Amino acid sequence: MYQYDLIDKEFLADRSAEFRGQVARRLAGELTEDQFKPLRLMNGLYLQLHAYMLRVAIPYGSLNPTQARRLAEIARDYDKGYGHFTTRQNIQFNWIKLKDAPEILDKLAEVDLHAIQTSGNCIRNTTSDPYAGATAEEVDDPRVWAEVIRQWSTLHPEFSYLPRKFKIAITASAKDRTAAKVHDIGLLMRQGRDGQLGFEVIVGGGQGRTPYVGPTIKQFLPTDRLLSYLEAVLRVYNRHGRRDNIYKARIKILVAALGAEEFGRQVEEEWAKIDAERADLPAAEYARIRAAFAAIPFETLPARSEAFETAKANDPAFARFVRNNVKAHKQPGYAIVEVSLKAPDQTPGDASAHQLEVVADLAERYGFNDLRVTHVQNLVLPHIRLDDLPTVFATLQAAGLATANIDLISDIIACPGLDYCALANARAIPIAQDIARQFADPDRAEEVGELKIKISGCINACGHHHVAHIGILGVDKKGEEFYQLSLGGSGAEDASIGKILGPALPADRVATAVDQLVGAYLNTRADGERFLDTYRRVGLEPFKEAVYAQAD
Amino acid sequence: MPRLIELTDGQAHWADDAFVNVADEDAIPSSGDVILSLARFEAEGDGLLSSNSRRVGVRVESNEEIEVLAYDLPRIAVVALAFPKFRDGRAYTSARLLRERFKYEGQIRAVGDVLQEQAGFMVRCGFDAFEPSDGATPEAWTKAASRFRHVYQRAVDDKPVAFEERAS
């Protein structure tokens, strides 16, 4: 993992001191709420329905045990004992007092954490593959490049007042676990025929009111030219992105208005004028950052572990966990372990202070001090020995963290919704819980297979409903909460935007409707087809009929 | 005489502002330094510049592109970049391009909704004069502009970047 040096640490200390001063001026009445708002937002502090919410950045979703324990401490001491992981691999605390915020930021800075640029019209936390450094699929370690971007984008003097927020995702695997194609910039690492590494650059994807799968504007950007190219994209956007209408200010609108080809041409034109010598990093700095992600000292182990095989044969619950939550590691004898934060009746993405500590301990004892957050709001222990898996499983199980449902129907993304958020039209969390209850039988959930449900409480689409196999959008109908279903979206490498199924349904009909959709899928699916594949083959009609024919 | 904050060697201080901002509907005074809108400058700037008797500045709005000034820049004493709202970040790009791409050496002045919280970004992008709208003093300005000991990216100022500090 990247280790903060004195420079990184002093930077956070300065940031913390700055914010302490700003909060003091606000509490003393020297700043009005209007003047203070942009300052607190730049430090991740939102005013929600009931309290302040603090969003802490977890750069590219990577945490060490010390950091996880500090998050647990903050949850316990300043919040109600839990934190909420977000779809940007960050964590939010929902019950923060303004006066405590500077102290919390100090405590975060002590362990190299911060809330810089977790809000505001700036370059947000760059998201990356939670399996980075562990999967054999990747052509390079994307964290190297995510860290390059983290430093470059931190308090960028030219790009801190963009027309709107700006999100970058980076992946180096064919299987995209970052939703790169629905980001402002998606960087897909590729290996050229000559072995050279580069990025396919996707610009102008997004969700919200106007969802787009982003177009590719550059097929192959050599890695050492990354920063100058990003500078060109951001400069074109900063100058020409719309600022007259908040709903039309994201880069996707500019790209759509100009057309991808013309936008790409303007970027190339700007890029050609940039002094690469100054804009791109020197080779020594790339090497320094890369060294921080140097190979972990894995043991040489046999690919087969007797302890693991025995446990799998004897304990059906462990076997189920292995089937769903354990993924192939590049190193023989190791595995990637997904820790689901989607237990039945839980709020998707919530982790208690105790749970954070349990996972921190596991990462420390069995996992090379490495812990990841996924954009699906789960956690990952990326390097666990197969020999240790039964013990790790038992520990997770005791902490309510062994739900074996990764990518299954109850592994639901849900935004905080009307339970917390001032923007929401409807609640999202109870709907997720209804669906999880409906599919509580784990055998049935496994039979249904991969099915990604995502729920947003309003059109801003924080719950990613546009890119869900089954998307659920909360709408307000004359003061009542209704839910509009859409089918066929995907945020992965086969990205697509879902299509609306039919009229919105009342809250108590949603779980039943999902059940009906699943029924239609099971009746129609061909061998090996996921829900999404069947939908793509047969279209909307059979599903529409399953939900609405019976309703009349 | 009105005052503005100027930056010399990293220190902000009060300075007298000799320039008169000429509104488009007003006549250009017969003598003295003036700042004109870009449109007015394009129409009447040449005459003023060739008389060589006074300094001329241009006010560029955030939706105007500074490239159109490229030819005249060596003769322009002040480019005043407007922030209609502090959230409008286009002037940062304009300032950077003026310094880095066009090697402009005259004054770049921040006007409009100019707040001390933006001081650091402005200085890094090449602004060296400020008309703060929040009543900031030069002391507050210097403090705000030098709050961070380190920076992570190259910009117009000569501050060593983190990777340069690390290498040294």
Mean pLDDT of chain A: 95
In percent, how helical is the residue content of chain A?
25-40%
Structural class of chain A: alpha+beta
Q: Characterize the overall form of chain A.
A: globular
Question: Which structural class is indicated by helix and strand composition of chain B?
Answer: alpha/beta
Mean pLDDT of chain B: 95
Q: Summarize the main sheet of chain B.
A: 8 strands, mixed
Largest interface: A-B, 38 and 34 residues
How large a portion of the residues of chain A is in β-strands, by DSSP E?
15-25%
Radius of gyration of chain A: 23 Å
Shape of chain B: globular
Number of helices of chain B: 5
User: Which regions of chain B have little confidence, pLDDT < 50, spanning 5+ residues?
Assistant: none
Low-confidence stretches of chain A: none
Task: Please summarize the sheet with the most strands of chain A.
Answer: 6 strands, mixed
For the record, give the distance between the C-alpha atoms at the N and C termini of chain A, rounded to a whole number: 57 Å
Number of strands of chain B: 8
Number of helices of chain A: 19
Task: Write up this protein.
The complex is a heterodimer of chains A (552) and B (168). Chain A is built from 19 helices and 21 strands. Chain A has helices at residues 6-27, 33-41, 65-78, 101-110, 142-153, 226-240, 251-258, 260-273, 276-279, 283-292, 306-314, 316-325, 353-366, 389-398, 429-438, 442-448, 507-524, 531-538, 541-548; strands at residues 45-47, 52-56, 62-63, 82-85, 91-96, 127-128, 168-171, 185-191, 197-203, 216-222, 326-328, 334-339, 350-352, 371-373, 379-385, 413-414, 453-456, 470-477, 480-487, 499-500, 505-506. In chain A, α11 crosses α12 (316-325) and α17 crosses α19. Chain A is globular, with a radius of gyration of 23 Å. The relative contact order of chain A is 0.09. Chain B has 168 residues and is of the alpha/beta class. Chain B has helices spanning 38-51, 90-101, 119-125, 138-145, 162-167; strands at 3-8, 11-16, 20-21, 34-37, 56-60, 78-83, 107-112, 129-130. The A-B interface holds A 5, 7-8, 10-11, 14-15, 17-18, 22, 35, 38-39, 121, 151-152, 154-162, 235, 238-239, 243, 273, 275, 278-279, 281-282, 284-285, 288 and B 65, 86-90, 92-93, 96, 100-101, 115, 117-118, 120-122, 124-125, 134, 147-155, 162-163, 165-167.
